[in-house]
Amino acid sequence: MTDLIADLPRDDRPRERLVEHGVATLSDAELLALLLGSGTRGKNAIQLARELLREGVADLARRDVRHLARTHGVGVAKAARIAAAFDLSRRLAADRAQPQPFDAETAGPMLIRTHSQRLQEHLGAFFLDSRHRMLRQCDIFVGTVNSALVSTRDIIRFALDENAVGVVLFHNHPSGNPMPSAEDLVFTRKVRESLKLVDIELLDHLIIGASSFSSMRQKGQI
Description:
five-stranded mixed β-sheet; 9 helices; about 45% helix; elongated
């Protein structure tokens, strides 16, 4: 295969095929190549995309953006585009789903699939309405919960932006152990008291391990 997509016959170029025949005619590698925009020396965008998809689309979707950016031929800009595309698809799926009251037994396994293999701690939250239905899920911080980067003000800001009445925190333990640490307990109580000041309830904090999770509410720790 040629090193440049522009050197391919017109009918083999992903962008032209998408415009002329529709997005459904493109393979996973061709769609990813459009997000990449370019390859690297000796390897065009489609070849690079095939390498990134060697373990499948689901594996790529779980990769941390910083880790992905260190892949040869990717870099920060391409990794950010890939992460943005996957998150847009998750938000679309969430918007289409019928809102249901938050359930830790449903959320926990889902978070294991998306967060258990991450190499750094990711702290996120579910923002809930008055009937405890999910308004939005998002990652907020990367790093340990006792890091100076973690600010309860940002959690409150997200909650107010979503007009949330309840919040469920979650974060993964790269060690694979889902048991809450002493720092987790201190941080959770700090967030709970801060949210009370703006009449928002902290309902739970889920700790995600390698193959299981812990609910601090179920353990009586909230």
